[in-house]
Amino acid sequence: MQSSPVIISTLNSALKGQLTLINQSFLHARIAKNWGLCEINEYEYKVSIGAMKDADRLIERILLLEALPGMQALDRLRIGEGVVEIFNGDLRVLEPIMEQLRDGIKCCEAEKDFISRTLLVDLLGTAEDIVDWIETQHWQIDNAGIENYIAAQMESE
């Protein structure tokens, strides 16, 4: 079943975002693990694996629509060199992903491709959940202080 070029482009843009998120989150997970920050490591790793599964769903959809998934391009990674920088970097990667997903949802509605729309809505919900988690971490840092936050992360081992 073929689809319009605009839908394929939309799905490939979403795929590019997920591929970027896989790499960003995986590296941040391993940085956090190296620093002994277990909760951040576990969460970032979970985000990376989730993005991989979401990328797989996009790839399957693109192939079903008789097109080729664009696997070569990534957006710029925003790697942090400290805990707050890690969270800020993740937000900087997620903001354009979420904007693209919102635009993609509108595009799918205009093209009456409600299956692709449902997929993009799911991805947007996941991205919003990640942003909520990061904002919670910022709140904890603001209220407890970075030193206490890091100590609590290390104690959760």
Automatic annotation (TrEMBL):
EC number: 1.16.3.1
Key words, A-Z: Heme, Iron, Iron storage, Metal-binding
Keyword Thylakoid listed: no
Binding residues for heme b: 52
CDD domains associated with the record: Bacterioferritin
Keyword Metal-binding found: yes
GO CC annotation: cytosol
Cofactor: heme b
One GO-annotated biological process of the protein: iron ion transport
InterPro entries named among the record's database cross-references: Bacterioferritin, Ferritin-like, Ferritin-like_diiron, Ferritin-like_SF, Ferritin_DPS_dom
Molecular-function GO term, any one: ferric iron binding
Region forming the signal peptide: none
Positions in coiled-coil regions: none
UniProt catalytic activity: 4 Fe(2+) + O2 + 4 H(+) = 4 Fe(3+) + 2 H2O; Fe(2+)(in) = Fe(2+)(out)
Pfam family, one: Ferritin
Residue ranges occupied by any Ferritin-like diiron domain in the UniProt entry: 1-145
PANTHER family, per database record: BACTERIOFERRITIN
Biological role stated in the UniProt entry: Iron-storage protein, whose ferroxidase center binds Fe(2+), oxidizes it using dioxygen to Fe(3+), and participates in the subsequent Fe(3+) oxide mineral core formation within the central cavity of the BFR protein shell.
Family that this chain belongs to: Belongs to the bacterioferritin family.
Entry protein name: Bacterioferritin
